[in-house]
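Quick one, T. Sequence first:
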Amino acid sequence: MDTTTLRQRVMELVDEATGGTVPVNQLTGGGSLIALGVDSLGLLRLVDAVEAEFGVEVEFDGPGQRMDTLDDLVAAIVDARDEAEPDRATTPG
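Structure tokens:
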């Protein structure tokens, strides 16, 4: 899955995790997920959805990892996938 498709899917997951409180169209401009209206329950649902869908673990309060925006979350997913499958990081496609 390329980064653009991944980003789109994560936006959909945010929308679902917040019950539509933070719709996809609000996420396209960037900005803090919290400032956009993702509350603590929404974050928990989002983490569960990301972990279930992509098979990776993400933490919003992990050490050394900024996790404030949609792009931060997408980068964390990419990094976690690359760590889980080291060949994927160097293999084109």
